[in-house]
Specification:
Layout lengths: L5 E2 L1 H6 L5 E7 L7 H15 L6 E7 L5 H10 L4 E4 L13 E2 L1 H6 L4 E4 L4 E4 L2 H13 L7 E5 L3 H12 L4 E5 L3 H14 L5 E4 L12 E5 L23 E4 L8 H8 L4 E3 L1 H16 L5 H12 L1
Parallel strand pairs: 1-3, 2-3, 2-4, 5-7, 8-9, 8-11, 9-10, 11-12, 12-13
Antiparallel strand pairs: 4-6, 6-7
Helix pairs in contact: 2-9, 2-10, 5-6, 5-9, 9-10
Bound molecules: NADP nicotinamide-adenine-dinucleotide phosphate (NAP).
């Protein structure tokens, strides 16, 4: 089977996927780094364990309206696991019966694990983010101030992870005030006594405590000519910056942070570790995240 190819819904009915199959499904999906990362990690597992020699990870272009039809077909073809990406992460909640509590709180699933009746849903994005912060910036959320930029799915996953891990303060800013308030009230209904301070991106809250981390979960920075979402000059001197964007590998936000002497990292480590966690859920093995990171970097070239 060809793991470089982009498969479609029709292929699920006409192609026999042999061995143990995994896949990422999204729309668009052509540029996903997941097949490269996962197939590299599977090859590494196969070097020492025969059972993984026939495992393969594919990519499927599935449009939003095709998801409900696609999931039973993946199950029938015995796909062991699926990663969901844009635009399926939220929509899948209505199609999956068993959903892990953190995925429920995040309002999205990015990983499906096959069971006899269907698939159970997890969300490994928050875990991937926190591992990325630990590896790249040597911090965890516990006891520190967290500022999240954005109010979409990635911002929500980051906020839930920060709350679950016991951050000391949570600040959230977004371009659309309405979307931000919707997200904050949604989080408030799940987590009792959660005090989230909202702000407008052009005016950061005053008196920010040390230490702290800014997480960019907006799409601002995806285009090389994009401005930075905030003015890093307003951050305390010891804060760190994590940009979920990894392509381009250095956004203006990161450049401005570094110019001010603040440590900054991009979102590749989050991508790698959400993937590693998913693969661990499917294989029940410890996965070599460094192999996945190297494959992702190579695929980005
Ligand atoms: P999303 O749900 O579409 O949310 C997009 C967010 O970006 C919204 O808060 C939106 O603000 C904001 N935004 C878009 N254009 C903007 C602009 N011109 N100025 C200011 N804000 C703007 O997307 P998502 O899934 O949460 O993803 C957000 C980012 O995280 C993307 O860059 C994505 O690539 C990245 N991400 C990375 C990883 C990883 O593994 N590293 C994982 C997930 C996502 P409004 O509400 O005002 O529209």
């Amino acid at each position: 089977m060809d793991t470089e190819k982009t498969y479609s819904l029709e292929d699920l009915e006409t192609v026999a996927f042999s061995g143990t199959s995994l896949a990422v499904i999204g729309h668009p999906i052509k540029h996903s780094l997941s097949p490269a990362m996962h197939n590299a990690a599977l090859a590494r597992l196969g070097e020492t364990d025969e059972r993984f020699k026939d495992w393969a990870y594919y990519r499927f272009d599935i449009r939003p309206e095709q998801l409900a039809e696609a999931l039973p077909l993946f199950h029938k073809q015995r796909f062991r696991g699926l990663n969901l990406t844009i635009p399926h992460k939220v929509r899948a909640l209505d199609l999956i019966k068993e959903i892990a509590p953190e995925a429920q709180s995040m309002g999205a699933v990015n990983t499906l694990v096959r069971n006899e009746a269907g698939y159970s849903g997890l969300n490994t994005d928050g875990y991937g983010l926190e591992r990325g912060l630990a590896i790249d910036l040597d911090i965890t959320f516990e006891g520190i101030a967290v500022m999240i930029l954005g109010a979409g799915g990635a911002a929500r996953a980051a906020a839930v992870q920060a709350i679950l891990s016991g951050c000391s303060n949570l600040y959230m800013g977004n371009r659309s005030e309405e979307k931000l308030q919707g997200l904050i009230s949604g989080l408030g209904s799940i987590f009792d006594q959660t005090d989230i301070q909202s702000f407008a991106l052009n005016t950061l809250p005053g008196d920010l405590p040390e230490p702290g981390i800014v997480i960019n979960a907006t799409a601002l920075g995806l285009n090389p000519e994009d401005p930075a979402p905030i003015d890093v000059a307003q951050l305390p001197a010891e804060w760190k910056v994590y940009d979920m964007i990894y392509n381009p590998s250095k956004t203006l936000l990161m450049k401005q942070a570094e110019a001010r002497g603040l440590e900054a990292a991009n979102g590749l480590s989050m991508l790698v570790h959400q993937g590693a966690r998913a693969l661990e859920a499917w294989t029940h093995q410890t996965v070599d995240a460094d192999v996945m990171a190297a494959a992702a970097r190579e695929a980005l070239k």
